[in-house]
Amino acid sequence: MNRLLGTLLALTLTSLLTLVGPASTATSVDPIPSDAVLSGTVTSSVDGSPLAGVRVALYGADTLFGSGTTTDANGHYSFDVGFARGYRLIFTSPETITHWYGGGETQDSATILDIGATGTTDASTTLKPAGTIRGTYTGTKPLRVVTMAAPYGPIGTSATIGDGQFVARITTEAPIAVGLHWIGVMRFNGNKYHGKNSPAIQVSSGSEVSDIAIDMPATATVTGRTTNMNGGSIHAKVRATVVEDGERLDLVWSTAESDWTTGEYSLVVPATTVTLHAFTSWDLYGTGWLGNAPNATGAAVLEPTEGQTLAGNVISVPGGRTLTGVVRDTAGTPLPGVTVTAFASWTADVKGSAVTNADGNWSITGLGYTSMPDVKVRYTHDRLVTSWFPSVTNEGLGRPALDYLADRGLTVAEQTVTHRSEYRLAATGQPVITGKALTGLTVQTQPVPVTPTPDATRFEWLCNGSLLDITGPSVVLPVSAAGCQLTARQVSMLAGHQPAIVDSAPVPVSAQVATVRAAISGILVDGAVVSATKPVWNFTPDRISHQWYRNGVPIAGATASTYRLVTADVADRISVKVTARDAATGLTGSSLSLSSRYIKARTVLLARAVSNAQHISALLRMRVITPGLTSSSGAISIKYYDHFYYGLINRSLILKTIYGNRQGWVTARITYGGSSLATRASILVRIYFD
After folding, report:
1. pLDDT of 587-618, one tens digit each?
2. Considering the domain boundaries, does residue 598 fall inside one?
């Protein structure tokens, strides 16, 4: 994780103007490109002379983003706007009053210039001259002059400081406070520590205010450390607080940052009654006050004298992140009494510590990602090998605990520890599984010797290395164990010692299954009787039952080993399930046959002939009946004498005129060839030709 190695504190004390404006709520549209130019000339409101060096900033009417330029020697400026839209302009310089084009000093007052796709827009303006504050001071020579306007933010100014006097150019006609800044202190007119308590000064354009006198306060230095509530160093900001006009005020000018590794700080404060507090924006910390007070009211106070250094002022900051964990031995048993210590990585700086409870749990508060170096966690006990999170015995392999857990979406630091060699149990040999490894049957194992003598032994059973929900030396194998490589594990324990854990050789587990599955024998035609073959089982059943299915749905009453096919089965598939039971062991297994081919209808073929007296011919009326099917299809043939007719059919009733060579009786064979869903059928018909 990238860490914030320092907090950038930007205190804008000179010539910075903060531009703010409301965000647009208008529907976003694609901007239209523009070749237009926005230009103008900036002149003095006093004598009309051109003003060089004025900063001109161009902003979109609905955005805070813009570009800037500076007027040339002739006071001229120019922008290639790029897009057709509305724009605002602001003009600033140390020698003029800040001005928004078409308005005053505020953005809201500005005129919006609508710029099209082409052309030149003139936005010339005049600027009023800045005002002047001239004052005196006593004490240490300040570093800079600061001017602040409501709500007490810095405004642009230029100033010169001499011995005992200062001059500042004021670029606003709004009420302001003026202050002098020295390391760690700020003093405003009226000799106030904070601008909000300072008498307001209003300087008109081109005028001068010269009755300002400020006494620079004497200063002292306070040193110390910032820590969490466990006494571990943290990186924080330290700020002084004074009471002024009955109100506690934070001196933002009197702020320092403590060292990221040691937590040490040095802060210059006014030589008056002050207190200190520490805070950080990171890691869920709160605010800590000198003397471990919960707030400013109860905080310890300091009364330094000029030039004095007050050392040893520790400020403890409440809150921070909490790290929780659990410690277990190699058998997964929680271990109480283990000392858990959080260190800054590769240092002796303790950030917090805890001792595991009866459940092996522990918790350390006051930690952080960015307020301290990486936090590593160490586990110690007089019978344990010293280890580091996560479950390693080499500090170099230890991982920053907070980052490790966060990166993996974890909340608990789980640690497995090992005992020193003299506190370890040892087993001789390994367990052996006896009994038939079949689900529903019992298997056993016997304990192997362990030294020194354990005070407790348990047996666990594993499926492919994962624990099953069965324990003890003798167990009934659950259905879930089918297909497992079964292992018996003996865990022997003695208080204060590392358990002895030994596993048996793996044994494959089978379910009650048919090694040769059930099948269907017989002719698959309506009215035929089919039978279920006998499966071959991997156990010895004493009871067999059957259930026949049509398209996977049980057939009511079809529970014998044989089944007579009915018309309802035509065009469907059948299957049979054979279930075997062993009453003595309670074992049950079943075998489901493959689905059969489609059941065929048993075809009935009817035919009769009607002779024709006028010709040596006859009309054959033939009907193909396929019970269970909605229609008939296939081919039909007629053979008599040396005559042969063949044709396809798509309905049950077929009419066909046949012709003879002579008068008299003829025998014809009519054959229906069958289909994938109907049997073949044939019939002989006697026909008389007139």
Report:
1. 788 888 888 899 999 999 999 887 775 667 88
2. no
